[in-house]
Amino acid sequence: MNTTAAAAAKTDQAWGPMLEVASREVFELMLGCKLTVPDSMIAETPEITAMVGLAGQMCGVLSIRCSNQSAALMASKMLGIEPDKVGPDVTDAFGEVSNMIAGNFKNKISGLGDGCMLSVPTVVTGSDYCLHSLSNSPAVEVSLLFESMPLVVSLQVHS
Amino acid sequence: MDSIAALIVDDSSVMRKIVERSLRQAGLELSQVFEAGNGAEALSVLMENRVGLILCDINMPIMDGLEFIKALGGVEKAKGVPVVMITTEGSEAHVVQALNAGARGYIRKPFTPDQVKESIMPLLAVKA
Asked: Which end of chain B is more exposed for a tag (fewer CB within 10 A), N or C?
């Protein structure tokens, strides 16, 4: 393994679990439900993606993606209403989830909180797109299940 | 404790609703809830209305939470009203900045209704 690959692997080992814990806490505290880890690789069909930019000592993009049904269920749990009643609040709620995961994640990295700013979230709907980050390292991705539906949390860092 | 009017300032309408629900779950009796999507909107609300509590995000477009607290000093109707920040920005520097600017409390997102209660009730008790 070359130096770059070794560094990337080390990053993945350290940040993957942190991303998972940060995500779990947001879902437990704000949505009242537990995320689970899939037993095997899951086929995801992302239809909505929320992104939050990080700038400063850590530069990159944290994104989360899932199905529309899953995002609607998140919004319904946050608002305490039925999923079919959430309407346009879905994108707002989904963006807030990404914002809280990003904030919670950076607050867990010692010394980073003061030196890293978050952008306001951006939400993309639809699946026919490619995200080209100016990252020079591979994305750290965590696959989870929200109410048995796939949810992927991804972090691309430009070191 | 008497019922109070609250102003919730956040650029996310979903988060404003969650904060309102958390206040009610914390046992606060709200006579009225005003909402604003940024600091400038919040100042407009305060020109016309008196509130007993302000909860405010930091990262917002147009006028952020820190600018808003600094501008509050010039609003007669907001004199002495406790401001509590509710934000994802949980760093030490942000907390110090907010408290120096005049905030009386600080709640990090994600939060529980109990955390909201612990931060807000002492402020209202002292005020009463």
From this structure: C
In terms of CA atoms, which chain B residue is nearest residue A27? B110
A2, pLDDT greater than 70: no
* Model pLDDT, residue B15: 95
Q: Give A135's contacts (C-beta < 8 A, 6+ positions apart).
A: A60, A61, A156, A157, A158
Rounded Cα distance between A47 and A121, Å, is 17
What was the pLDDT predicted at A139? 87
Q: Which residues pair with A153 in a beta bridge?
A: A64, A142
Phi, psi of A85 (to 5 degrees): -105, 0
Structural domains in chain B, CATH included, are 4-127 (3.40.50.2300)
- β-partners of residue A39 are none
Strand partners, B32: B5
Closest to B88 (Cβ–Cβ): which among A78, A80, A99?
Answer: A99
pLDDT, tens digit, for every residue of A92-142?
A: 999 999 999 999 999 888 777 678 888 889 999 988 887 777 766 788 999
Cβ separation of A120 and B11 shorter than 8 Å? yes
Residues 6+ apart with CB under 8 A from A41: A143
Contacts of B110 (CB under 8 A, 6+ apart): A25, A26, A29, A30, A100, A104
pLDDT tens for residues B60-108?
999 999 999 999 988 988 999 999 999 887 777 888 888 998 999 999 9
Both structure tokens of A127: 């699946």
- Measured between alpha carbons, how far is A77 from A90 in angstroms, rounded to an integer? 11
Size of interface A-B (CB pairs under 8 A): 62
Residue B89 near residue A118 (C-beta atoms within 8 A): yes
Domains of chain A (ranges, CATH numbers): 3-133+153-157 (3.40.1550.10)
- Residue A54 host element (H or E): strand A48-56
